User: What shape does this take?
Amino acid sequence: ASLAKSKKIPFITGNQADSVEAFILGLTGKTEPNGPTYEQIRSTVREKHRLWVEYWRPTNWKCIFGDDSKRIFSKASHGRPSIQEEWATYPALIQAAENAIQKGAPWNAPAPSALTGSKEANLKNELASFEVLEGFEVNLFADESKGIANPLSVRWDANGCMYVACSDAYPQIEPGVQGNDKVITLRDTNGDGRADESMVFADGLRIPTGMEVGPDRVYIGQGTELLTLRDTTGDGHANERRTLLTGFGNGDSHQTSNSFVWSPGGELWWCQGDGIESRVETPFGVSSLFQAGVFRLRPNELRLDGLLDDFMGPGNPWGIAFDDYGQSFVIDGAGGVSYLTPASIPAKRRLRLPRIGKPGGYCGIDCLGARTFPDEMQGEFLIGDYKKNQISRFATSDDGAGFKLDWKEPLLRSKHRNFRPIDVKVGPDGAIYVVDWYNPITCHQDDFYRHPDRDKTHGRIWRIAPKKGILPSPNLVGASVLELLEALRAPERWTRLKAKQVLVGREVAQVLPAAKTWAKTAEGRDLMEVITLLEMLDQPDSEVLKRLLASPDDRARAYGVRVAGRWGERIENIVGLLEHAAEDRHARVRMEAALASAALPDARTILVSATVAEEPRDRWINYAFAQAVHHTKENWLPAFQRGELDFGDRRRGLTALLGAVESKHVLDEVRKLLLSNQVDENAQMALARALVAVGENRDLQTVFQLGQLDAATIRAMASRKRPEFDVSDFLESLCASKHVEDSVAALELAAKWRIRELYQTAIRLARSSQADPQLRSAAMRAMGALGNKETIPLLKVMAGKSANPKPSAIIGLLEVDQAEAAKSAADILQGTIQNEAIGKILGAFAGREGGGPLLAMELAKRKIDRTQGKRLQDVWIGTGFVQEAITEALEAIAGWPVASLKFDEDLVRRMVAAGRKGDRARGQILFESARAGCMACHKIGNQGGMIGPELSAVGSGVPADRIVTEVLWPARQVKGGYALSRITMRDGRVLQGYLQESRDKKLLLLRDFAGAGMHEVEAEMVSKEEPIGSLMPPTAQSLSRDELSDLFAYLFSLVGK
Assistant: This one.
């Protein structure tokens, strides 16, 4: 305020005039407190501030300035400017507002553009297109006639009133235009299954991607803000709007805060996606979440935790759900289903969360729980599967500490491509309500941001009800405390949640004694429900908690452990309770103990994690354990180094702890344990690998002194420099190990470290017909790394022998003489050779600097017939490598000319029209043929490769013109996540994959094109090329027009199953 006054700039503090009155006095020569001029200037100043914020931190800034600025979304099209050009109009708007202020004149925001709508909208046809699960029926609950164009989410208050968040501004606000997205309330007052009352609860919103209804307010996530809306007058309109938290990212409007949901214990959870960087100031400090992840908020405390920071989980999360016992799952708009509970620690150490459900276009999820559903469906999950135009369904079953999924027949299918289910929730009446975004376009970044086909005028809420009937909505708001407690026994999940929310709104002095009395006779899930009520009231109770921890139900005990971690030191003997849980017979309870230990500041809780590691562990416990150890390291490590922590006989646990912590501060303890003979062989190897990973070069000698090492430990050494002491005798002895994998690892390490003393051993093993084929192959590769010119004839001879050794001999020869290797490879490739061997040879040359052009030159000299050439080409495409010289050489041999068809929008339109008339059956045969090569990279259903995007629902999820464009000109617009980069390393290796930047800015390269293992390449990188194009060649350009018509007809027809 003082700075504004010194600069004579109008400044508003809340509702106070402040310097505005002085400004008006100077402008008009008279004061006018709270008069028309004051209100006009005050309004314009606010508008100017709004414009500046939108300019300074624009929505979709990733598409304006970032790595998505070259995507189709951002480019000029359809006679409209690019997103960068549109953003650049803000300064003129800001100046116009400033001029209006200085003149005391009004400033009016620009009018919004006319809204576009799909001509395919036809409720009768849409209803006819549905195929609903037997025993259910579907009807329209509400559409745009009730004000719900572009609905995003649906929730209810305790009265059973439906709230629907809607946005016609998505995906990008217009410069200067005032936001007018809305929350609409709907009511079915006559019980006919259709909304007959509609009211605007709140307007003036800006793309409210997140919404949830709490005990007395509505929570909204939009852009950078978390808002609360309240109706304090009872007229049905929100008259109180408050910014609860701000600082959330808005780099990509389809990835901002979304999919709000309450946990059983009253925490508000939601998702944020790729391209979002949130730094939110809270009473507990700044809470950050970099890129995709999940937020967890305790509203009463404003404690905000960011989970799965920096790409640890789904990249496009759009839905979280809890089962009846609080286990959580998150779904991804492109990447499948993940078990979320193990990631409940707000850790910054990047550890990838495994996925348990197949990829799809998922958005919106709920868990079934109501007496209206058949017994076999209770506890199942429904998800909006918008790419396939259906509501998918799965059940869960135990898989150690985690779960596995059993996919069921979809609840609802639609043949209408505009049916886009993006939220699905069970309502208070036990019916299922589906939010239908209704749009021909679903992709954010791969379609123009002002594309005229984006529907902004339609929307549907569909109601799927069991034919046997629904339930009357319970009267919770008028119920007594005892009646509300009894409602916690209801089969309906909605009723239980809302009963607790109503209880939270009552006087604690009235609710708490009644709840404790009621808990005395509660068992099983009823006892868990009262615990969750105590969580929401923030009233820890040791006795009730101990009863839950002693439950015979593993699921209840697991949740009890979680609550123990939340209540922490307010519970007597908390460490002892958690240690007991860490020895539980059920893996999930032990996993929850590890998670709970990370919630407490007490250094002794590391003993809980160590106890967990004493017991059998699966991947979920390992995940939770590793994150707990790292997240609490600052608490326990100093105490451990001071000798203040006694691990007793937890030797396995301590071994796992030291192996997981990756801290050089504990190396002395590791060294002592390694040489103490106090740990078993498996533990010894685990410690050895930890020492190799984080120790000094001298520590390798300690490891070698152990004697026999396993393959994993030997391979771990490859990341280290060759030690100064002699290791040749030791590696020589390992080459004679009875375990082939140990011998192979020893040869690979000798090759990496250039231990030339093992050269003769490598020759002997390579020549031995008695040696294991895997060992012989490793020996041939080692010969190349360890040999010299004298090695060339030996490897050339080996390359010409039996099929299996050929690729390894060629790879070895590449290390010694690339030109000779290219000659031998070309000779081999023109003859009979297995496809697997072809792939290894071609991949080896593509993966070596300068190797591709040499091989291409030699192939051109050979007289290879077209049949063999096509076979080589098919295998090459299937490898996923991009190497221009090899590609051109194989195209020439196969008789397939380099693509020359130029992109033309009119041609695209003609091909779309031709595809509408093509033969789907012939198109499928062509797609699956070796000639087209599509199946090598693309999966449809359960068939095909995983190198490129799955196409099971491409006809539903991608506009036809884009399908044509990406098939004929694949490099024109590479789909997000499939743009290749090429890295040349110091040792001459060439790596290809997908670059991803982590929080610490290290480059991570996905070596496997299907998205598997990562390589850190920053330290050894010589050069970087990005992007180098698409994995997909323009093969389709070689097809006839009739063949293309059939192929497109088939692709257009793929709408998922």
